[in-house]
Give the backbone structure.
Amino acid sequence: MTRPLLVRLVEDYWGVVLLLCAWQLWVVISRFNVIVMPTPTAVLRDLLSHPDVYLDNVGVTLAVAAFGLVAGMAVGTGLAVAAWFSAITAGLLNPITVLFSSVPVVALIPVIARLLGYDTSTVLAIVVIITFFPSFVFASSGLRSAPPGSEDLFRVLGASRLDLLRHLALPAAMPNLAIAFRLASAHAILAAMVAEFLMGTSGLGYLFAKTKSDFQTEQAFGASAVATAISAAAFLLAGRVERWARERYS
Amino acid sequence: MKRTLLGSLGIALFLALWQAIGQFKLAGISWPPLSAVLDMLSDASRLPLFRRALSATLASTAVGYAWGMIAGLALATLAHLLPWLRRGSDRLAAVLNSVPSIALGPIFLVLLSRDSTPAAVSSIHVFFIVFVSTSSGLQRASAAHRDLFEVLGADRLERFFRLEFPAALPPLVSGLRLAWPAALIGAIIGEWFGASRGIGILIINAMQNFQIVLLWCAVMLAVVASLFFYGLLTIAERAAYARFG
């Protein structure tokens, strides 16, 4: 059943629209100066009038986030496979990953910046670290989620450990990896932005920090709005990927 | 038994590696040995500084955690009882979660005050996790159970309090466990926007003044605070799964 457009808009976005209206009203009623707090319409106007400034920085942030996401997921999955191969590696790795998964990663940014330097490599390292943990945790449990007995069947038919990995464990881990991808993709952009904000190199976080201190508050909020839109879109899109993986592999 | 042994060995290896890298300056001067960090942490003259920062951050985190939990539970329950609200509240939560926390700082700075900004940012982080885990948990009750309640004449509220809410408890507690580190991160980021004290302030100051050992101490405090409560909540989670799982 298809719903009319207006009904769909109200049903899906009443919360977001309400929030934006409340923001607009709040700023208008309190008569804030635009430096203190711009209205959503002022932010939109700034977005439309300087698209080039935004596009450059979006490109930088997106590239770092995407590259970091892929690298982080590769490292996480790789280590999960290593842990799957050997019980000793698993035993050594597990507590450390639990330790790290509960660590406030943002607190590590200054430490990593001291080690790698105040540039894009630190932003990349943060994205890798933030995406690595969910992929390791979900891949590890996914690799062990093949139906009970199927591993014995493979063994009886003479499959090697590598065959087992390729034809049984990895396909079984796909839906879980997709969940990790969804969790990590939204965080990748936000983490990149926080790191850029602290480091002050380039990208959306840098744009935010710079315009904030120059009192171009509309542009600072514009940068945040763009980041919000990208990260929400990444979350929804990755949700589609997750559904596809679940249907395809389970 | 074997798992604990290997696990402790893994942690010990990690700590030894940390000490060695610091001792032999393998990563340059920015990586102090573990012993230097522990020395400073136990230095009596620094204790009041650490205690003030930690208690400020923990207080903001606790307040944000409580508010975020209440808001997440309330919206998830409302959307569950009034299904036509569900799609919109899902979208709202997803969008709120996508707002960069550094953008939340300036908003709460204007809306509230400098010293309540950390708690506010932290509550937004907690809200999303609690909302997601509660709303998926509320759908856990099986159709057969629902039908049974229907047949026995339970009304909507009875079904909610006696069936659906208890069934939602295990995922909710898992959510609460994951929400703690997120709450702490929110508080630390919130402190960057002009709070008077806290771990976040300590981290930024140490970073800007190149006090490397102090920086590592501040990070270590954040990690320990995160792990301690995370561990407590893991125990609570086991209990919830054992009772309601």
Summary: Chain B touches chain A through 57 residues (CB under 8 Å). The mean pLDDT of chain B is 85. Residues 30-244 of chain B form a domain with the MetI-like fold fold (CATH 1.10.3720.10). Residues 156-191 of chain B form the longest helix (36 residues).
